[in-house]
Design brief:
This protein is an all-alpha fold and 222 residues long. Helices cover 80% and strands 0% of the residues. It contains eight helices and no strands. The longest helix has 37 residues. The termini are far apart.
């Protein structure tokens, strides 16, 4: 009815144009998640430290990043950082650094909520045992916070995977770029975008279902 013809798309086209983009999207998601959680946890600890010298810069960073559209941050890193360092970084490296820096702000808020959800009695118990602030966080608070926040962290990771499509703005070859390229070469851009939407939906829906199962298991353990 709409004149769409999906028959042009097959495994050869997928492996030639889309597969490498999918690999980059997954790689970017995993690296940005790991780096974002590490940096985000550090930012959360800084905001909860009670020391103004640590709280103020962390708060400015988190609120600033959360107030700017991701695509603008991607463009800023891609266009401005090479001017500062005197050489180009490349679209893939620029996208990776941008996503780690940007997602850290969101993971920071998730981790801060997780840390604050731990009963203060457990913190006081660790202090009574002679633990330092760092030891208390490492052995008592953070393991429980990670477990409590795991479904939310994974949900944010799914959102991150969807956001990787924004690297088209700097020409990085992600999964969406692969579909776009195939659509242009074979003269089927509408079908290519439709197929891209279907693949994104299937991947994200499956991951969301797994997160719900995990959340149910964590609730049972509690």
């Amino acid at each position: 009815m709409l004149g769409l013809d999906l028959s042009f798309f097959n495994w050869d086209i997928f492996s030639k144009f889309v597969l490498s983009g999918l690999r980059f999207s997954v790689q970017l998601t995993l690296v940005a998640t790991a780096g974002g959680i590490l940096l985000g946890t550090l930012l959360a600890l800084m905001r909860l430290s009670g020391k103004k010298a640590l709280m103020l810069p962390a708060t400015i960073y988190v609120n600033g990043m959360r107030s700017i559209p991701l695509v603008m941050v991607i463009l800023w890193f891609f266009l401005l950082v090479p001017l500062l360092i005197g050489r180009p970084m490349g679209a893939e490296l620029s996208a990776t650094i941008t996503f780690v820096a940007f997602e850290a702000a969101y993971f920071s808020e998730i981790m801060r909520a997780g840390i604050q959800s731990i009963p203060r009695g457990q913190v006081h118990a660790g202090q009574a045992m002679g633990m330092s602030y760092g030891q208390n966080m490492r052995y008592v608070v953070l393991p429980q916070a990670f477990r409590n926040m795991l479904p939310v962290l994974l949900t944010q990771t799914i959102i991150l995977f969807q956001d990787t499509s924004l690297v088209y703005a700097i020409g990085a070859y992600d999964m969406l770029k692969g579909f776009t390229t195939a659509g242009k070469i074979y003269g089927r851009p509408e079908e290519a975008y439709l197929l891209a939407a279907v693949v994104y939906f299937v991947i994200c829906f499956a991951l969301s279902w797994l997160v719900k199962r995990l959340q149910a298991k964590i609730a049972i353990v509690r």
